[in-house]
Automatic annotation (TrEMBL):
Residues 1-137 form the Aerobactin siderophore biosynthesis IucA/IucC N-terminal domain. Gene3D superfamilies: 1.10.510.40. Residues 352-362 have a biased composition (Basic and acidic residues). GO terms for molecular function: acid-amino acid ligase activity. It comes from the Archaea. Pfam families: FhuF, IucA_IucC. This is IucA/IucC family C-terminal-domain containing protein. Residues 341-362 are annotated as: Disordered. Coiled coil: none annotated.
Length: 362
């Protein structure tokens, strides 16, 4: 391959929360609608990896996009949307495809992909607004307290809740009802575990009532796909060599979704709500578990998934103890592509909830 620099070309762009994804500056809307986001490679390490963009992600993104679009259409998803990656490119050195070595490094440092912007999804209307979930646990510049607290106040006022605790629990229950069920459906039915942690999730809120209406999940390069479950529906992927996406292990699926959605996303939200508003953390997790149980019951009622599989997925989600991804240990051991885990109590299990400590020691 040959690389031709174009020094006279420049396009101002604004980075998003995840830094390497940028929005073209001052061109958010054109005659054809919002421009796509651009995910680029940067040689900077955050958490446990250097944030380049691998040829795996470039080759796999458009394929995975086709798969998730098919699933969205088949299932008529009502609360889960995927921000797809319809096009991508990178430098392909001679002798490839490369999965390691100098050729791989050259490819992952000169690459990019396009991601559809949230404003183009049907869930986002004039009456709704998408908010990156990470923002919910950050302090609002308007009030100086976490944004989720301001939203709970507005949500409770619209529902005429009589106490802050009641408003918070009602908000959390609604939140879980739009975040959890269809992600479990996609996992159980198609074998796709989304990496729906706080940074990858956008919650679509009703502007007036602050009511959670749907969730949008981005970053298809971080998902896990069980080929056997997917093949049952006539779907398959031809992935870049040595990709992390595919797995034949149900445990890999469970670790991916359960860590990202429950241990990262929902646990951080619950911790913030309880710390700021004095809500009973055990009750919060009871409400979330109820949403999980209802989701599995709906999957059973559809009669499209073997009962034994549903039970395995349930047992893994509610197991006590559960495993937790140890990012610091992964960084110290240099295990970028291998999980390092530790056992922790699972607040989705009755025994795990009883181990939750409160400031007063109860």
């Amino acid at each position: 391959g040959r690389v031709v620099p174009l020094p006279e070309y420049a396009q101002p762009a604004t980075p998003q929360l995840n830094l390497r994804t940028v929005v073209p500056h001052d061109t958010e809307r054109t005659a054809d609608g919002p421009l796509p986001r651009c995910k680029l490679a940067i040689p900077v390490q955050t958490t446990n990896v250097v944030r380049t963009l691998s040829p795996n992600a470039v080759a796999n993104g458009p394929q995975v996009t086709d798969i998730v679009r098919t699933i969205e259409e088949r299932e008529s998803l009502e609360t889960l949307g995927l921000l797809t990656e319809p096009a991508a490119t990178c430098y392909y050195p001679p002798g490839g495809p490369h999965s390691r070595g100098e050729g791989y490094d050259d490819a992952r440092h000169l690459s990019g992909l396009l991601r559809t912007p949230p404003a183009t999804h049907s869930f986002v209307t004039d009456d709704t607004v998408p908010v990156v979930a990470s923002s919910l646990v950050a302090d609002s510049p308007a009030s100086g307290r976490p944004l989720v607290c301001d939203l709970i106040d507005r949500y409770g006022a619209n529902r005429e809740e009589t106490s802050t605790a009641d408003a918070a629990l009602a908000f959390l229950e609604r939140y879980a009802s739009v975040v959890v069920p269809e992600q479990l459906l996609v996992l159980c039915t198609y074998g796709i575990a989304l990496e729906s942690h706080l940074q990858n999730s956008l919650i679509v809120f009703d502007r007036e009532a602050a009511r959670p209406e749907a969730t949008l999940v981005r970053d298809l390069g971080g998902i896990r796909v069980h080929g056997g479950r997917l093949a049952e529906h006539g779907l398959s992927l031809e992935l870049y060599p040595e990709s992390d996406v595919d797995t034949d292990s149900e445990a890999d699926l469970h670790r991916k979704l359960y860590y990202a959605l429950f241990q990262n996303h929902l646990a951080e939200l619950v911790a913030t709500i309880c710390d700021e508003l004095g809500v009973d953390e055990r009750t919060c997790w009871e409400r979330i578990r109820e949403q999980c149980e209802r989701a599995f019951e709906r999957i059973r009622a559809a009669d499209a998934v073997p009962e034994a599989r549903i039970r395995r997925d349930e047992r893994a989600l509610f197991a006590e103890p559960t495993v937790h991804k140890a990012l610091t240990a992964m960084r110290l051991r240099g295990k970028r592509h291998e999980y390092v885990t530790s056992e922790v109590s699972n607040p989705l299990s009755p025994d795990g909830r009883q181990r939750i400590d409160f400031p007063d020691g109860t």
